[in-house]
Amino acid sequence: MNDINALFVEYFVNDPLDSEGYLNDCMDLLHGFAQEKGIEFDGYFQERWEDAADTIVNFDEDYFENRDRKNLYVFLSALYDDEVFDYLQSAYAIAKLETPTQEWVKLQVDGLIAKGVRF
After folding, report:
1. Cβ(26)–Cβ(78) below 8 Å
2. Residue 48 domain-assigned?
3. b/e string for 1-27 if b means 16 or more Cβ within 10 A?
4. What's the whole-model pTM score?
């Protein structure tokens, strides 16, 4: 956990006045962490892309270019996995932002889904 938190601190120190950029960097890192843990929803990620293995497509770069889709994956992962949730809370705490609660994360998920964000 210390390595990811150290990166959060580094991101924040690089530009402490750019909280949006900082949070985007943190969400990118958490996205990669959740993928490394193999977090999936309805088996979608691994199964869908294993079937398309003969196509030259990088799932991370192409599929998750959409910031809202990436955020939805991270927020859902945080609801599913305590470690991802703890990291999400740490990212906000380091920037001295209000620490997310489970309820807040659920509201973010609901808002993104209402916006039409889908996998």
Report:
1. no
2. yes
3. eeebeeebeebbeeeeeeeeebbebbb
4. 0.81
Cα(107)–Cα(112) distance, rounded to whole angstroms?
9
Helical segments of the chain, H only: 2-14, 19-36, 44-51, 67-80, 82-94, 102-114
Task: Report pLDDT digits (tens) over 27-80.
Answer: 999 999 999 998 987 654 544 444 444 444 344 555 557 899 999 999 999 999
CA distances from 13 to 48, 60, 87, 89 (A): 38, 26, 17, 18
Of 40, 17, 13, 28, nearest to 88 by C-alpha is: 28
Token couple for 40: 């999936």
How many domains does the structure of the chain reveal? 1
Task: Give domain status of residue 12, yes or no.
Answer: yes
Residue at 119 is within a domain: no
